[in-house]
Amino acid sequence: MHYLRNNNHYLHSLMRRMGWTVIPLLLLIIWQVSAIRLGKPWLFPTVTRVLVQLLHPLRDHYASGSLLSNTMISIFRVVIGFVAASLAGIILGILMGSVRWLRSLLEPMVEIIRPLSPIAWLPFAIAVFKLNTLSHLFGLGYSRTILDQVQLGMLFVIFVGGFFPILINTIDGVAGVRQNYILLGRSLGANPAQIFIHVYLPAALPMILTGLKHALARCWMVIIAAEMMAGIDSGIGYLLVYAADNAAMDLVIAIMVIIGTIGALLSYFIRRVMRPFIRWHGKEV
Amino acid sequence: MRITPNKTVASDRIALSFNDVGKGYTSDIGTRVAALENINLQIDYGQFVTLVGATGCGKTTLLNLAAGIDTSDSGAISLAEDICPKRDVAYVFQHYTLLPWLNVEHNVAFGLKMRGISRKQRINASAELLGQVGLKGYEKAWPHELSGGMRQRASIAQALAINPKLLLMDEPFGALDSSTRRDLQTMLGNLHRDRKMTILFVTHSIDEAVILGDRVIVFSEQPGRILEDQKISLPRPRMPSDAAFTRQFLHIYGLLAETHP
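Structure tokens for the assembled complex are given below, as produced in the milestone run.
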């Protein structure tokens, strides 16, 4: 029995290592060979052609900017929308989580709006905000900076995408703080403001961070979809559609790789940032 | 039953008093439950008072009233003038006694932080207290890394950090095994002897009540009432194997068995 378990463990780790190396490599080889034999790079490019695109991130495509510049524009849009959604979501979430009547008052509206896909807001948002950008908002007109690429309509959609996961998780986190911790804080002399900062906030932090994690992943998905809409002329999602329209399938796949990688990096990054804050979570005694 | 304060101790030395205190709850099914009825109790400065009775007889409610967490329906609860309810009263619970997001050192220092004491002083005070409760070397440990007994040691240190004049304890050793429990009882007895604070200690163990208390208040169930207020003058450290101890124990046991067989 003991032997069998060890054997299983060995098998498991071997398979895991193979899953990360042999299988992807095998698929790449099959891809490469079949692409060469098919000979239609506009439909099914070789691995090497995709790699060449990825190795030249600064090359300008159809006067629409490079892979790098468009990626940076998308990331910039997401960061601004995400930060705005975080601030609004956390503040409103803490209020709704701790003030019972406020939650009763606002929760129905949240539940009505929340199920709507953020992307569905885009045509409306673009109609309302026209093509006004952040630099218009700051009264700069056309500023020739990255601010010109941050359309308010797009920010609004990212905001909607990030806001609800953060709001819902913050409400649950704050409402779920153990009464005991609040009593303990009070008995140790904390005033209401100190209870808020030193008890409510740290106790709700794991849930808030979970909300932020989901929200960031959602914002990244939303921005790609939003940039694929008509009327948008920058961003990695835009470049993806544009490359497909021009049958540049090597570029399309390169962009897919970039989008996937950035999604993974964002999720890795936020988990790394979160880790020290939530080490205690689930270990309450 | 009316309990008169012990006249051998000057009556201006009363730290905490309950006068005709009553408290009821509406239960989930809508019936009115009297948690406390007609409670009269005076606790002298420096006295170690234990409250013993079956679970659900309002002992915790009494502590919550003393802590100001809860308010009474009738009667008055008063603290001596030099005991500030916000600064001088500490509470030790049975569960969730430490803040899980702070390590042991910062948990103990929490009360001092709320008072704006500098970080350096807090950490020094915390280290000293941890030494006193036998947790030297565990400053950086997390609550979930400690055993049940160690957690209660840490939470006692946390309560002592604010230098309380009144310490309220709600079955703090209720979840511990008997030998750990005995160790902590000894430690708490010593801390009380050295610090001269007033302690109100709730337990459902008669044994524990007699080992620790200068006075044992025997509580009855539903409504919570004081059955007897018994002074324990056995010498310390108290030995449960002692004949006099056993007599006290059996007397209280008999009282409790009578009211809820």
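Chain A is about 75% helix and 0% strand. The radius of gyration of chain A is 24 Å. Further analysis is deferred to the final report.
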